[in-house]
Write a structure and sequence with these properties.
The protein is built from twelve helices and no strands. With about 270 residues, it is mainly alpha-helical.
């Protein structure tokens, strides 16, 4: 369902060429293509990190078991109980599998297009936050951690595999990383979408953003793909990335002599 990392880099090169060739004729097309190239690179790095993480399967299983025990010590909600409540309902179980597999990347793509077209002045700081939080997560994910569905101690099943809806296949193969449980890029991206949509939009439909975040957080856990802790770690990383992203955007505007379009640096900091 997801493109391999090689295809992502190929798309990045294609979008970069389009951006370069279109710049003298249409700045808007050039800008859109340039942003698409950046997102394609982030996607490819995420997929490539998944390949690298498969080099340490044994230790990944040990770390997964350790996180599970830590969650029980901290008395976090038990993911197994949530999954057991879902499994008797095949429709909702399959819906959760589809949401996990199909909403992650397309939702981010739709969000970026919406933000670029409708809230261009706010686009750069959020794009910077996206790049930074993805980078932070990928660096941590170089230390592989097995998800609950692969950790025997959890007692959880792979709901995607049970219904033939898994994007992974056998351990060690497949186009998506299987040992990138900590932290959850699914949750990080969904949290960014929820935060940005709620903050930037004035429409009554802006509640869709936070709902997407909440649904994603639950879905990644009940399907056995993430621990609650994976999402809880991703959220402060996003907060840090947002602050740094704002600073980068402000510095870039001053460096290139661009207007902040009504968003002075001091005002931006307050809104964080």
């Amino acid at each position: 369902m997801w493109l391999p990392w090689e295809y992502g880099f190929g798309l990045a090169v294609l979008f970069a060429i389009v951006s370069w060739r279109a710049r003298p004729f249409d700045e808007r097309v050039a800008a859109v293509a340039g942003e698409a190239a950046i997102v394609s690179v982030l996607y490819s790095l995420w997929q490539l990190a998944g390949r690298v993480s498969l080099l340490g399967i044994d230790r990944a299983l040990e770390r997964g078991a350790w996180i599970w025990e830590l969650e029980r010590t901290l008395r976090l909600p038990n993911e197994l109980h949530w999954q057991n409540a879902l499994i008797p309902h095949s429709f909702w179980t399959q819906a959760a599998n589809i949401y996990y597999a199909g909403a992650h990347v397309p939702a981010m793509g739709l969000f970026l297009v919406w933000l670029f077209l409708r809230h261009r002045d706010s686009y750069s700081p959020w794009r910077n936050a996206l790049a930074l939080v993805t980078g932070h997560c990928l660096i941590i994910q170089l230390l592989p951690v097995a998800p609950p569905r692969l950790t025997d101690e959890t007692g959880m099943i792979d709901t995607g595999l049970a219904y033939g809806q898994s994007v992974y296949g056998a351990l060690g193969r497949g186009i998506a990383g299987q040992l990138q449980a900590m932290p959850s890029i699914h949750v990080a991206w969904a949290a960014l979408i929820g935060w940005a949509v709620w903050r930037e939009s004035q429409s009554r439909w802006r509640v869709i953003g936070p709902i997407h975040f909440a649904v994603t957080f639950v879905v990644v856990a009940v399907t056995g793909n993430h621990y609650w802790a994976d999402g809880l770690v991703a959220i402060p990383l996003l907060w840090l990335s947002r602050i740094v992203g704002l600073r980068i955007a402000s510095f870039s505007r001053r460096l290139f002599g661009e207007s902040d379009s009504g968003s002075e640096p001091t005002r931006v900091v307050v809104r964080v």
